[in-house]
Amino acid sequence: MTPKIHTRRSVGVVSTQFFHYVNPAKPFRLRVGGELPEFTLAYETYGELNADRSNAVLVYHAMTGSQHAAGINKHVPGVGSRWTKEMHIGWWDGFIGPGKAVDTEKFFVICANYLGGCYGSTGPASINPATGRPWGSAFPVLRFVDIVESQMLLLKHLGIPKLHAVIGGSIGGFLALLTATRYPDFVRIVVPIATGLETTIYQRIINFEQITAIESDPNFKGGDYYDGPYPEVGLALARRIAHKTFVSLEDLKERARDEVVSHKPPYGWYEMNHPVESYMYHQGQKFVRRFDANSYLRIVDAWQLV
Amino acid sequence: MTPKIHTRRSVGVVSTQFFHYVNPAKPFRLRVGGELPEFTLAYETYGELNADRSNAVLVYHAMTGSQHAAGINKHVPGVGSRWTKEMHIGWWDGFIGPGKAVDTEKFFVICANYLGGCYGSTGPASINPATGRPWGSAFPVLRFVDIVESQMLLLKHLGIPKLHAVIGGSIGGFLALLTATRYPDFVRIVVPIATGLETTIYQRIINFEQITAIESDPNFKGGDYYDGPYPEVGLALARRIAHKTFVSLEDLKERARDEVVSHKPPYGWYEMNHPVESYMYHQGQKFVRRFDANSYLRIVDAWQLV
């Protein structure tokens, strides 16, 4: 008997949608303080909302993920030339689609880029309407509850009275749990993956390492770097510090096997001498082309409070 | 019956000794290339060499350790004002002494600072006789075999025909194994502790993170920073990256329990918010007062080749 999962079926070509929150009488207030006079969330949906609006599934992406969870989208916004071809396919295309684990023949799936993110949602790289320049260091302090609340406004906008399920991995799992605990009557099923109820000591330590790596890059300039060179060395180091923790080391060794070791010292005197160094180096370099350093810092900051 | 180990007995006050290698006809050639026209090793000894010279025990310190393994020494050289009071007591005083695990009533114990180190042995911070200025980036590339060979010259100078034992933890363990495999007839017992025969993938990755942290500190200037500000942010980050791997996380959490969280952001925008961050931050800050960034980089470089 053939299994019923059709791994080769895709939701097809998808496009980004935008939810703009503008309400001069009621700016979006953030947990710690400060407010956004308006904000945008970039999101995608897959499948159809049924007549009784009971089949909505909210998927939270992981820290550096995007709203592009399934199908093919060649025009994910917000990252400009930093977007790489391999990201045209949604990051969870293996799980979301017709007949897949999150079956789009049954469910209406929504995935939105975090508030504070850099894929079309309002974040530190967005223009601050008060100044006409990127928010940078002036972007309000973000907490996970703000990300959840902004997505609740999106769900309201989409006319979702209750979620069939909320799903997320890593930070996405924290957000799924937070959504369910804040709104227990609004969520039927919670699927937290590779996550927990609090930040572990190890995670807290490596998050702090990443914060240091970004903030001490001289190009970071406290977060106001949009007119100057990009703090790519610090951000790439942060990414490498994280990368080893979400890929199995055996797998990483295997993937690095065919890596050609560059003989050009990337940071100064030290020459790489092992494929795994070269592999990690390129993971960092690839990442900085697609992610904003301020978004990274602000999300890690929120993470440290869980 | 009382156990025979008298943990409160100490070898007492000790002082640093120096071995100067100078042989114009035969400079010390390093494995990769380059040579040192002369070099110094700073070392300490405990106990007495017996009449038939059969009771010598060589102890290799770990990466950032020193020759000051036991007893009390208020004048360990080479680190100037960076030396902290808590380091007056030898780093392995609990194990080396009369009646202790490495019994100085039986053995003649030798511990020398690595070639390339910063506690009185010749290293990148030492004066290059050819220029009258610190070696810095011009210090020859170091391999573990060079550290072993320099200590073999010291043992020869001390008139040791054969070691009763060679002991070392972490990198010291690599060096102990290397000594024993290069000179099997010279070593009776090998005690490698918390070490292995090769660098693991995880270690290789975090070593590379540390290299990046040091080299990308703008004060590092490729290793020629002795006239300017110290690359302390990069070195402190490197130390923190390492620190979490040689202390149990449970222990670390416990030690951090009473840490006061500073509200002054140490690197920019991000404010620490948990005792473990503050604890790790202070581990980094303490370390940069006592260790040279070039020594750190050069030893990690050698480590990557194991």
Mean pLDDT of chain A: 93
List the uncertain runs of chain A: none
**Name of the level-1 CATH class of the largest domain in chain A:** Alpha Beta
Number of DSSP helices of chain A?
7
* Termini gap of chain A: 45 Å
For the record, the count of structural domains of chain A works out to: 2
**Amount of beta strand of chain A:** 15-25%
Largest contact between protein chains? A-B, 43 and 43 residues
The oligomeric state is homodimer
Structural class of chain A: alpha/beta
Order of helices and strands of chain A: EEEEEEEEEEHEHEHHHHH
Fourth-tier CATH superfamily name of the largest domain in chain A: Alpha/Beta hydrolase fold, catalytic domain
Report the CATH topology name of the largest domain in chain A: Rossmann fold
Plain-language structure description:
The structure is a homodimer of 306-residue chains. Chain A has helices spanning 144-157, 171-182, 201-215, 232-246, 249-256, 275-288, 293-303, and strands at 17-22, 28-29, 35-36, 38-46, 56-60, 96-97, 102-103, 108-112, 127-128, 133-134, 163-169, 187-193. By secondary structure, chain A is α/β, with parallel strands linked by helices. Chain A folds into two domains: 17-193, 3-Layer(aba) Sandwich (Rossmann fold); 201-303, Orthogonal Bundle (Rna Polymerase Sigma Factor, Chain: A), CATH 1.10.1740. Chain A has a six-stranded mixed beta sheet. Chain A has a two-stranded antiparallel sheet with strand order 2-3. Chain A has a two-stranded parallel sheet with strand order 6-7. In chain A, strand 2 (28-29) and strand 3 form a beta hairpin. In chain A, helix 3 packs antiparallel against helix 4. Chain A starts with 16 loop residues before the first strand and ends with a helix. Chains A and B meet through helix 3, helix 4, helix 5 and helix 6 of A and helix 3, helix 4, helix 5 and helix 6 of B.
